[in-house]
Amino acid sequence: MTPGDVLLRAVRDAVAEGEIDVAVPESVVVFGRGRGVFESPVALRLGVEPEVIARRAGGVAASGFVRIVLTVGDVLEAVLRDPRYGVARVPRAAWDEWPRTFDNPGFSVRYAYARACWVERWAKDLGIRDGRLTAGELESELAWALADVPGRAEQAERERDAGPLMFCLEKVAGAYHDVHERCPAVPKGDEEPVPGRVGLARAAKVVLGNGLNMIGETPRERI
Questions:
Q1: Vertex 129: Cα angle to 108 and 195 (nearest 5)
Q2: Contact 205, 139 (CB under 8 A)
Q3: What is the per-residue pLDDT across 13-39, written as a single tens digit (0 to 9) for each?
Q4: What is the Cα Rg of the chain in Å?
C-alpha cells in the first residue's frame, strides 16, 4: 500500500467504528522524509487527534502530523499491484529534449525508463525468475523515491504545477541509474541473479512511465 492508502484506511476505519465523525477524504497530503518515513497533516486538516489515526495506521503522532514507516517490500507490492500507481491529473509540462546527457534531467528520466524496459526484456530472454528482494542501501533509496511519487503527483494536481512531480521523477531516475549500474538485475558472466532486482526495475518502469504520461509525454523504450 502507498502511504496515502495506509492513512486513508486508518481514517475510514476510525469513522466506521465511530471513533471520529468526519467525511472521509478522497486523498491525503503525504510528504516523504527519507528512508521510508512519511508524514501527513491529515489529522490537522480533519480536525481530529493525530493519535487516533496514527494508532490505526501503525505510526506515531509527531507535532500534529501522523508519521508512518514503510518497508521496501510494502512499496514494491504497492507499485507492482497497481499499473496506475501514482496517477493524478497533472498539468502538462516538458523537459528539454537536448542535450542527451545526464546533465539534462529530461534525458535522465527518459533514459531510466528505457533502461528499466531493457532489463525486463533481458530478464525474460534469459529466463531470470524474480523473488523477494533483500534491499541494500541503493535499492532502498530507489524504493523510497518510488513511494514519494503519489504524494508529489497529488501535490502537482492540487497546485496545478507539474514541478513537484517532475522533480520527484528526476530523483527516481537518478536512484534507478545508480541501481542499474551498481546493483544490476541482469547478471554478468557466471554471476547468479539477485532475487528481487528485476521486480525493482519493473516498479521503476511503472512509476516513470506513469509520470511521463502524466505530464503529457509518451514514454519511449528506446532513446
A1: 65
A2: no
A3: 999 999 999 999 988 889 888 888 999
A4: 18
DSSP β-bridge partners for residue 66: 40, 61
Q: Residue 195: what pLDDT?
A: 84
The rounded Cα 113 to chain-centroid distance in angstroms is 14
* Grid coordinates belonging to 166: 517532475
Ordered structural domains, the chain, with CATH: 3-70 (no CATH), 88-214 (1.10.730.10)
Cell of 33: 522524509
Instruction: Let me know: does 177 contact 101? Beta carbons within 8 Å.
Output: no
CA-CA-CA-CA torsion sign (181, 186, 189, 192): positive
Position of cell 532513446? 223
C-alpha cell at 6: 495506509
Percent helix, strand and coil across the chain, each to the nearest 5: 55, 5, 40
Which of helix, strand or coil describes residue 215? coil
Backbone angles phi, psi at 113, to 5 degrees: -60, -45
If you write DSSP's letter for every residue of 158-208 in order, what string do you get?
Answer: HHT-SHHHHHHHHHHHHHHHHHHHHS-SS--TTPPPPTTHHHHHHHHHHHH
Give the pTM: 0.89
Q: Number of H helices and number of E strands within the chain? A: 8, 4
Average pLDDT value for residue range 173-185? 96
Measured CA to CA, the distance from residue 82 to residue 73 in angstroms comes to 14
Q: What single-letter DSSP state applies at residue 48?
A: S
